[in-house]
Request: fold
Amino acid sequence: MARWDEPNYEDVRWDHGAAADVIGALQRTAAEVEQVVAEGEQAAHVAMLLWQGLHFSDFVTRRGALSTEGRNLAADCRAAAAAVAAADERARAEQARRVRAREEREREEREEREREYRRERARSHA
Reply:
């Protein structure tokens, strides 16, 4: 059996606490970016109402681009948080699978030892 075909009974190397920290940080960052975008849009709205100079259309275009970029950044943070959460869940599922596989292997080994013991005992009494 090739090494990559052999079952892996080792614990999964994954830090669930660190994953939770990263997820929380990404979600907080997304919320903060969204708040800053909203505040910037409110300020820009007031500025546009009071605008009396040139370059109004440039301001509106650039302000819109900043808002879009901010919303995209927040969406990227939420997507990254979701990706980490999915990886965390996969690690949990894989760990559970490995625990079940170890338990099954141990059960099979125990049963084989018991069968061998019975065979030896039967031979010695024959």
Summary: The chain has two helices and no strands. The mean pLDDT is 94. Residues 13 and 116 are 36 Å apart (CA to CA). Helices lie at 16-50, 56-125.
